[in-house]
Amino acid sequence: MKSTKKLLTILFMLPMLLLFTQQGTADDADVKVIEMEGTNQLDFTVTEIEVRPGQKVKVKLKTVSDFPKAAMAHNFVLLTADADASAVAVASAKASDNEYIAPEMEDQILAKTGLAGGGETVEVTFTAPEEPGTYEYICTFPGHYSGGMKGTLTVKKQAT
Ligand SMILES: [Cu+2]
């Protein structure tokens, strides 16, 4: 009698265990995909991103332009909370041999793509910071940050 009850309990719990396991898998695959374009007007078409702490994020950036890549290309560079965006942009604008990323500024960079010329798409997958707050992202192609090419990634617990 007792063992039957035990067996029933186990049988009852099995589906729940499976459910939990499946949910775990679903969470791992829960990547927030952000698709945006970079324009000749030096804009990201998405300037505000909201994510949960530690969420996996994939940013895809496509450059829409007919100009040659040397004249018009974009990247997505996510900065640390206390980064000096202007300093990163100014230094990186000189790093033409390193896809416009100044090596000495890497400690202020959380995630970055390569450069996308017209018609090209670049992407990066990263884990959002655990610390709630606002993180700026910029394009480090010369003149683009000062031309207004930036946006903010907000980490908050109730992000949608
Ligand atoms: Cu740009």
Explain this structure:
This protein is α+β, with helices and mostly antiparallel strands. The chain has a single domain, classed as Immunoglobulin-like (Sandwich), CATH 2.60.40. About 20% of the residues lie in helices and about 30% in strands. It has helices at about 1-30, 85-90; strands at about 30-40, 50, 55-65, 75, 75-80, 110, 115, 120-125, 135-140, 150-155. The strands form three sheets. It has a five-stranded mixed beta sheet with strand order 2-10-9-5-6, with no helix packed on it. It starts with a helix and ends in a 5-residue tail after the last strand. The structure holds copper (II) ion. Copper (II) ion binds next to loops.
